[in-house]
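Table S2 (text version). Query chain:
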Amino acid sequence: MTQTTKATSNSLPSSGSQLITVAKYEFRNYFGSRRFYVLLAIALIVSALLTYVVAVRRPASFLDNSLDFYSSWWGRIAGLMAILSGIFFGGDAISSEFQNRTGYFLVPNPIRRSSIYVGKWISAFVAAVIILAITLAITLANAFYYFGPTIPSQLLQSIVFSLIYLASVMGLTFMFSSLFKSSSYSILVSAILYLFVFSLVEDLVSSIVQIEPWFIPTYGASIITNVMTVPFPAHVITTTFGRNITLTTYNATIPEGLAILLGYCVISAILGLVLFEKKDFT
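Corresponding structure-token output:
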């Protein structure tokens, strides 16, 4: 009896093997799904519109120099595509297992829930990186056309910050996906927070309450664009209108922005895993 049990336990794949298997098959699902090509179409349409505007209108903010071009182009599109990728790929990654009842067949198997969660997270992140990479390739193609093959070091930093922001968005969307059993709720909450609520709260807190919005992820993500501004914007900018009206603007420093984004990524990912571990398939 002991030898049989030992042989069975040895035949089970390790957690690493389980994680790789889940990630591989989930990535195939993402790559073959309609949502991947819908998001790719959005990225191509936005890039095509920017290409048309720059070529026809020739705005000075784009064509003054290469750094301004990258700041105006990549700074505008990177954060948006990170948010949309998180919503498209992470919004229902876990909740769909409950709503579609696929988890009833997956979880009873001898596979750790942590392997399922991390494998799904990795596959969603890789799919999102592909979308960002295509967007970046179009950005570089346009920049090379106007300014030649020059890549400022600030752009490289901005790309790294964009990937960290993507990871933080993915962590939070996975947490909401673990919190709700309905895919509609998890996607809707993620979309409303990132597309409306975070930006609105950031503006209200900084301009009206005049408190630094260090607890808002979109505030930390401002380093994606600000790193390409020379000189880097001051941390606090105070503007006085008339005698009694004062407007205070805050800009996250690079260490602060990274701390905010990494904090959201790690904490939300861990909370999402804990929620998934504790949730019953009943």
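Notes on Table S2: The two ends are 33 Å apart (CA to CA). The chain is about 75% helix and 5% strand.
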